[in-house]
Amino acid sequence: MPEINNNLHAVVAKLELMQEYFSRLDLILSHPEKEIVDDLTLRAAMERNFQLIVDAAIDINTALIQEKKAQPSDDYQGTFVILASTGIIPHELAFAMAPSVGLRNALVHVYEKLDPARVVHDVKRNIGQYREYMGYIFKYVETSDKNK
């Protein structure tokens, strides 16, 4: 098998981590929404795994932007748009995903008191986009590996 470069190795490692985070998040989201809202431990685990998924995607975006020698982004949201400009993910997906970075920031930096029901709703709404994103990234890595 051909050797893939360090950026793609980093991407593959992050994809593997994302799969782990998804496994945990899926277990949490299998609980009724009210139970997640009312159970601080479940809610904190959901928030943390969502944050880790977003962080991994941002790291992947950064590595692939470097790989493609594209202009780096000034912010995390912009990494999705720049990645789309390279053709790796569709623009529609990038624009749909970019705002989820705001939720990640709110969770990490606690900019304001967040409504737990809204957070659960937003995580459930956004998580499918990350699954779709992973499909595009896997496809890109596979194609890149075959072309080397």
Summarize the structure in words.
The chain is mainly alpha-helical. It has one domain (6-143): bsu32300-like (Four Helix Bundle (Hemerythrin (Met), subunit A), Up-down Bundle). The protein has 7 helices and no strands. It has helices at residues 6-29, 33-38, 40-67, 76-85, 91-97, 100-109, 116-146. Helix 1 packs antiparallel against helix 3. It is globular, with a radius of gyration of 16 Å. The chain starts with 5 loop residues before the first helix and ends with a helix. The model has no long low-confidence stretch (mean pLDDT 92). One of its GO terms (molecular function) is hydrolase activity. Belongs to the HepT RNase toxin family. It comes from Candidatus Taylorbacteria bacterium RIFCSPLOWO2_12_FULL_43_20. It holds the Pfam family HepT-like. Keywords: Hydrolase, Nuclease, Toxin-antitoxin system.
Brief characterization of the structure:
This protein has 148 residues and is mainly α.
Total beta strands:
0
Q: Quick check: average pLDDT? A: 92
- The residue fraction in helices comes out at over 70%
- Inertia-based shape: globular
- At the first level of CATH, the class is Mainly Alpha
Biggest β-sheet description: none
Poorly predicted spans: none
* Total number of distinct structural domains: 1
End-to-end span in angstroms?
9 Å
% residues in beta strands? under 5%
Per the CATH scheme, the topology name is Four Helix Bundle (Hemerythrin (Met), subunit A)
